[in-house]
Amino acid sequence: MGAMEYVCAVCGDVHTDLPDVGFAWPDHYFGVPEDEREARIAGTSDTCSIDEHRFVRGVILIPIKNVGLSFGLGVWVSLKPENFDTYVANLDSSDIGPFFGWLSNTIPFYDEETQLMKTRVHFQGDGQRPLIELAPCEHRLYLDYRDGITLEGAFEYVHSIQE
Question: What is the pTM of this model?
Answer without folding.
Answer: 0.88
